[in-house]
Amino acid sequence: MALKGNIFSGLVTFEVAARLGSFTKTANQLHITTGAISQQINLLESQLSLKLFFRHSRGISLTADGKKLYQVVQHNFADIEKVIDELRQGQSPDGEIKLKLTPSFAYKWLIPRLKKFYNLYPNISIQTYAEGALVDHQDSNFDLTIDYGQSPYHNQHAQLLLNEQLIPVMSPSYFQRFDWQNNSTENQQQIWQSVTLLHDAMPWKNAKKHEEWQYWFEKMAIKTQSNQGHFFNRTDMAMAAAEAGLGIALARYALVEEDFKQARLTSPFHPINANAGYYIIQHRSSSVIECFKAWLLTQN
Asked: What is the pTM of this model?
C-alpha cells in the first residue's frame, strides 16, 4: 500500500520507540509527551492492522510483527542516512526554494530551526513568505506550502509534517490568580466563568471563531461558555496576549516550547490531541526542494 504522510510519521516514532525500548525515552528524544507517543503508536497499529508492541508493567517490548517491521524500517532509515551523508560529503546542493506558510508557524517553529538547515546546506536559500493568517495551499507560485488544518487534511496529496496538540497557556501571574489544584466541580466551574479566553479566530478556513476552545472544552467535559473573551486572527497573537496577562490562550503545543523554557507561559494542564496538524503541499520537485522537505520531516 502507498504510505501516507501520517503513516511515515508514525514509522519514525515507531523506529525510535523500538530502538529505545521505552515510550518515555522516546518522548524525551522527540520532545513531545508520553501520551502523544502512545497515541501515535496506537494510530499506526490501527492503520497497519498490526500489533507492534506488548505493553506491560515493566515497559514495552516488540511483538513478532513489530520485530520484522523494525528490521525493515531500521535498515531503510540507515540507508537514507547513508545517502544523505554521501550527498553532504559531495557537492552541496545549490538552489532556491519559495516557501509559503503562516506567520505563527514561521516565527515560532521554523525560524528557530533554520540555522541547523543552513549549517548543513549553506548553498540553499529559503525564500519564506508568511503574509496572512490563512495559507492558500493552491497557490502554485510557491514550491512548497505548509498549512495548518483539520485531520484528515482536505488535500489528499498533502503530506503530514506533524500532528498538533492543544494546551491552555497563561502568564505566571495570571496562573496565580486561581486555585488550579482544587479539582472540585464547583471550583473549576467558577474558574472558567471568571477567566478571559484568548482565541485564534482563524485556525483554518471557515472555522468558527471559538472553534478550538469549543473543541477543548468538549474533550475535557467542561461545561462553560467558549464564545467569550478576545479574538485574534493569528495564534501567536493570542499567545502574546496570554504572556501579557490578558487571559488564557489555547496554544498549539509545537509553538510554545521556548515560551515554557523561558517561563513566559505556564499551564496546569497536559496537551490533548488537536485533531489537526501541519501539512506540506508540494507544487514543484527538484533535488533542492526534496532535500529541504526531507529535512523538515526530521524536525517533528
From this structure: 0.69
